[in-house]
Amino acid sequence: MKYLHTMVRVRDLEASLKFYVDALGLVELRRSEHAAGRFTLVFLAAPGDESAQVELTFNWPDENGQVEDYGSARNFGHLAYAVDDIHASCQRLLDHGVTIVRPPRDGRMAFVRSPDLVSIELLQRGAPLAPAEPWVSMPNIGSW
To answer: How far apart are CA 109 and CA 62, in angstroms?
Structure first.
């Protein structure tokens, strides 16, 4: 058995790509459009690690322009990524306008949420970094 990917349904493909690719730093591996089924699939992975992929599934709006409502996505736990520098990763996300819902006060773990409210856990690779500002003083925001 081999792990292939995790599928996440998204309401707005462009907003999701801005989050997952531009802010989080994943790379797009491939994309396919399925006109008969009215959906687009985009496969993403962390740079240099195609073994763990995220499949973004965008179901096209109906004939009235309505997009399917998936709820808050809280029935899905979270995606987790190891990062080389959790402080720099969180700063990059902040610079892209992403709210850090659980800051890396401990230098080890942080959470953010995608535009579709999917929780993303960031874990410091190796030993935790020394606690530092602004993270130490930053409060939790919402849920993750």
So the answer is: 39
Provide the pairing of β-strand 39-46 with 49-59: antiparallel
Q: Which helix (H) or strand (E) holds 128?
A: none
Annotation says 121 is catalytic: yes
Which position among 28, 33, 50, 121 bears the catalytic label?
Answer: 121
Q: Do residues 82 and 23 make contact, with C-beta atoms less than 8 angstroms apart?
A: no
Q: Which two tokens stand for residue 4?
A: 């292939």
- Cα gap 142→95, rounded to integer Å: 19
On whether the CB atoms of residues 131 and 105 are closer than 8 A, the answer is yes
Angle at 29 between CA 125 and CA 122, to 5 degrees: 25
Tens place of pLDDT per residue across the chain (144 aa): 677 789 898 999 999 999 999 999 999 999 999 998 899 999 999 999 999 999 999 999 999 999 888 776 655 778 889 999 999 999 999 999 999 999 999 999 999 999 988 889 999 999 999 999 999 999 999 887
